[in-house]
What does this fold into?
Amino acid sequence: MKAGLFASVLGVVLISVSYQATAKAAPGGADLILTDAHVYTLRWGEPSLDGMPAPDAPTTNGKWHPDAAAVAIRGGKIIYVGSDQGALALRGKRTRVIDLNGATVIPGLVDSHTHFIELGAKLESVDLTDVATEAQAVAKVAERARSVPKGEWIFGAGWDEGAWANRYPDKQQLSAALPDHPVVLRSLHGFAIWTNQAALDAGKITKASPVPVGGEMRLGPDGEPSGLFLNRAATMVEAAVPPEPQAIVARHALKGLGQMATDGYVAVHEAGVGAQAMAALQQLEDQNRLPIRVYALLSLRDPPLMRQWIARGPDRDSDSMLVTRAVKAYYDGALGSRGARLLDDYADKPGHRGISGSGYGFDRDLAKAAMKAGFQLGIHAIGDAGNREVLDFLEAECKADPNTAQGRHRIEHAQVISPEDQPRFARLGVIASMEPPHAVEDKSWAEDRLGPQRILGAYAWRSLRTGGARLTFNADNPGSDHSIFYGLHAAITRQDKQLQPPGGWYPAERLTVEEAIRGYTSWSAYAAFREDQTGIIAKGRWADLTVMDIDPFALAATAPEKILAGRIRATIVSGKVVYQR
Ligand SMILES: [Zn+2]
It folds into this structure.
């Protein structure tokens, strides 16, 4: 009797469970259906280390073709991938159907090393790049000032200090037109700053202010600063600029994220978030205003913030729009300015090897504490010595505490790697986080710094792959253009936007189109511990998709230069169309 009662209760429970399941599935159907698309799902096997597609990849006689035509989405997840007919069978009364007319759909793009808050600030600053005269520049800044509250700083950039060298501007016109806003106008190449009186007053800069060695503060007819600062004197103005209030940081963040969404990205890894930026991002997350996913790398250069997060521990939940489980550190400088640490002298500066580690401000103990607390480290390393020392550091730490070996630590840039260190990435499980644009932008001087031998280990995507390293791709914006079409083209051809050099720069390091796309999708998912939620287009995954008007898989084989002309059609995050052209 007791057993029978139990069974019937269980029966009722089972019935109600299955009723709930069908009730949830039946009415309404899909939220969104994309049809008539060239869908490349990436849900096939990984390519070999030399780039050969997996046996189950959708290729015929070496030519790629899409492996689905439609995707259906509900509740932020993909519920169907396949034919138009199959997707439309899930159409309900409230389903939105978008006919893509043959556009290409790939898993949502991720830029795994951005500075989108800086990008937003740059987008908000007045663009003076095509301005011919001082009067035009002043008019452009004054126009902007109409929508900026009095007292708030206005920034601009791009006036050409080379072209204007014989007729440098001063504060007179600028101060007359903008009496109530401190104005800082940076020059095209960063060697000069032009300000108004309000900025000089705010910075308490007078003729008595000390001028740093290697700088020049121009004086006007009255003997007071003219408003023009050259070379290192620009730091006098930079030092006067107050830290921005959180509301402005939040505005810049939204501006930068909006731009990334427009450009096809469903997620970014922000490389180096300090306390103020973190507060702004958390506020935007709480207000449900983040348009795309943010994977924040906390700045190791902010020790109080780090200590707070070490005590709290990393976010384990990947589903929020803001996830914090990684840390950004700097280990050495940059190659162009000869700050990167090399194993031997710079080819163009004998006796000089750059600087690294504690000399560059790397806080080893804080980095160790973050690893121990479960954070992933993303350490900036450029030179072959810088990279070796970081690998040594990670190897020692992972040996001492095997738990930290699961941290999927990353080297940001991994720019110059000695051949003997290439296989260490795979052995230690370290991810190489790299920028395809950097190779084609640095090619004019990188070999001067490194010479003909070491250059072979620079921007060496294929060599690292061959050594078994996992890669993730990004642009490190706003220093480089984050256009996916530029990034893919650089990765596939090793040519710049002018298609130089013919045949590609050190073309042995090129990647295939599949590898390049994985670098921005499935491999980036791994770099953020999200390979079970996203990275490929498959049932149950996040509905994060990018739609573009070109088919890079097809063009890579026939006319790779046409990839540069691609345009984003739509960006879909968690089933929401966050951008549509
Ligand atoms: Zn960076």
